[in-house]
Design goal:
Chains A, B: This is Sugar phosphate isomerase/epimerase. The structure is a homodimer of 259-residue chains. Chain A is α/β, with parallel strands linked by helices and 259 residues long. The first copy, chain A, has a single domain, classed as Divalent-metal-dependent TIM barrel enzymes (TIM Barrel), CATH 3.20.20.150. Helices cover 44% and strands 15% of the residues of chain A. Chain A is built from 11 helices and 7 strands. The first copy, chain A, has a 7-stranded parallel beta sheet with strand order 1-2-3-4-5-6-7. Chains A and B meet through helix 6 of A and helix 6 of B.
Chain lengths: 259, 259
Amino acid sequence: MTTKPWDLPTACAKYSAAGVPGVGLWREWLEGRPLEESRRMLEDHGLRAVSLVRSGFYPYLNEAEKQAACDDNIKALDEAAAVGAPQVVLVCGAKPELSLPENRRHITEGIASLIDHAASVGVKLSIEPLHPMYADCRSAVNTVGQCNDMIDQLGDEWVGIAADVYHIWWDPQLAQEIKRAGKRIIAFHVCDWMTPTKDFLTDRGLMGEGCIDNRGIRRLVESTGFDGPIEVEVFSTRHWARDQDAYLSDIIEAYKEHV
Amino acid sequence: MTTKPWDLPTACAKYSAAGVPGVGLWREWLEGRPLEESRRMLEDHGLRAVSLVRSGFYPYLNEAEKQAACDDNIKALDEAAAVGAPQVVLVCGAKPELSLPENRRHITEGIASLIDHAASVGVKLSIEPLHPMYADCRSAVNTVGQCNDMIDQLGDEWVGIAADVYHIWWDPQLAQEIKRAGKRIIAFHVCDWMTPTKDFLTDRGLMGEGCIDNRGIRRLVESTGFDGPIEVEVFSTRHWARDQDAYLSDIIEAYKEHV
């Protein structure tokens, strides 16, 4: 999604040529071809499928919505298994019509109902806490501490945490909750926070453009033992409008200098 | 600020006629006339000065900025005393050029340096935690829990907390931290969170228009013993564009129904 203008074949070719070792796969990019073909495309380019993004969206207003969410989450786990991704990143969802406790109950129950299927296909469920500015309609899970409380209930064999600096950088309890999470952190995303931020969704910065201490948060995450791939996840209309070859080269520079 | 198109004389007349018992005074509204005259205007209309809004903005890049912030905070305390407001609301500030720990150190030290003057004029310093989406450039104090940690250090004789639902509604630790705060909560602001929110600053809703559980948060706050005035604080270009007499009537309705 960071290089949104490129389709999967283009991204595979470009990343591979630039020495990028893996990719977070957004489901939209898998549409229109057999999953086995996407898997082979990654393999042929020596690229690792780091994660499948995204499912979740558990809160519901009626039984039909509940069932649709469940079906889509099962489908996402199957897709991840098919393309060789070890985890599905969960954007947990929120409905402004429901109270926060009700949203959070739907989310916890929704994830719990998927654990058996996750185990059967060998794919982990990775809860991504989203920034509190998304608590109304995108996710009622908003801090690493809250993920820890949820995973205390859910167990951590098939449920982990995707830590994205954009969502968690401001948290006064970040260091202690990352430490508490320990091995639960199974994904780590970097980008930056722009001042001013002009759009709630698509005005992220490249690492070094904003105020997030990417390197400091990386140290916290790696001190838990995390040694997985670090994903650059920048949603930016500004960067999407640029020449994507030059942008990829800037991403790699920014990663080396600021992560 | 909720009825921004009105100046202080107009607001005093309208609020008084509508039976509103008090007002949060923004400093801009006091400019252009002697403070004693503003104080008498409030008294003549039977209006209580609930708070003076705002000072703070402690983080600095150089000594000149540090001194200017200090001077302005002293001035705000004096103004509050002069108009009879028992507290100054602090927007603590943040500089994207500084690390979060550095911003937070400047804030704690800045508040500490004002306590003697606050005591001498009999005006409390009220820390308002701001929503995490403002952590880059408006306030590096973002949760009630963080305020509690700061006040553990600063003492609570002259330092309290202004709890505004807009900033804190999403917090999974809200109930426990409000309970921990107890008598430290000396101001309570209500409004609502719109879905979608179209602007970072001026797209708040009137209570009942959005997803915040104002009544539930009021119960939490009042269970600490808080019995002060509840302030409606809505920044909204949409509502500012309306007829303000009709709007004031809607505010009172919304307050009765949703707070």
